[in-house]
Design a protein that fits this description.
The chain is an all-alpha fold and 98 residues long. Helices cover 81% and strands 0% of the residues. The mean pLDDT is 86.
Length: 98
């Protein structure tokens, strides 16, 4: 999380607005990347699990597929959202009036 601020300060060069914009953009893009990579691995593992369960047991996995996928993606979104908020709180610089 500290590297977000370091990367943003490299191209901001003292401009606080550009620094904050850089922090927001870097945090957003890294969270989006993590969401796609983790989401793809979750979907792949659920597909493999569904295939194995379908071969072993006669219980239909396809009926609960949407619910399981929705819950998994919501949980992933919450975890990534918390990570993103922590990164933003740690790296944003806000000047408060005195």
């Amino acid at each position: 999380m500290e590297r977000i601020g370091i990367a943003a300060s490299k191209f901001a060069k003292g401009n606080i607005w550009l620094y904050n914009l850089g922090v927001i953009m870097i945090a957003f893009l890294s969270s989006l990347f993590i969401f796609f990579v983790a989401g793809a691995s979750i979907i792949l593992s659920l597909l493999l699990l569904g295939y194995i369960i379908d071969q072993v047991t006669p219980v239909g996995f396809e009926k609960q597929w949407g619910v399981i996928l929705r819950i998994s993606m919501i949980a992933l979104s919450v975890v990534i959202g918390i990570f993103n908020l922590m990164a933003l709180v740690k790296n944003l610089k806000i000047k408060l009036p005195k």
